[in-house]
Design a protein that fits this description.
single chain; mainly alpha; globular
Length: about 140
């Protein structure tokens, strides 16, 4: 039960920290250089992660288990980083950009979740989806 709540709390806090720091990245720095520094630190943090989540069969055996998803995840992460750095440099508001991107991504993933991963959704989930659509309209409402 601990992992259930800890994992989502970590994801939520990290997402909030991500958007705060992306918005705080100086606009006069080349964002590719910024990402190089980011990934260097991420590499070190990931290495430290081995103390908490060791590769019990050895790192070479674990590498042999990898598939296309690791490459896809890397491309997606870099796309997210570039996308949000450019989004915030273009003047998007912190809260609106993050909410808009996450809600639209979730709505895009909905059919994938249902048809590919066989996730089940309930009527209350459908009501939440409708609320998301209404929220998107409200976020983009011209004042």
């Amino acid at each position: 039960m601990f992992l259930f709540y800890f994992s989502i709390t970590l994801a939520i806090c990290s997402s909030a920290l991500y958007h705060f720091t992306a918005k705080s990245t100086p606009s006069n720095v080349n964002f590719t250089v910024s990402l190089l520094a980011t990934y260097a630190v991420a590499f070190v943090v990931t290495l430290v992660g081995f103390f908490f989540f060791p590769a019990t069969n050895g790192i070479q055996a674990e590498f042999a288990k990898l598939n296309w998803a690791s490459i896809g995840l890397a491309i997606a992460i870099v796309g997210i980083e570039y996308g949000f750095l450019l989004t915030y440099r273009a003047g998007w508001n912190l809260g609106i950009a993050a909410v808009l991107a996450n809600v639209v991504a979730s709505l895009i993933l909905l059919p994938v979740a249902i048809f590919l991963f066989k996730d089940k959704i309930s009527w209350i989930n459908i009501a939440g989806i409708i609320v998301c659509f209404v929220g998107l309209i409200m976020l983009n409402w011209k004042r």
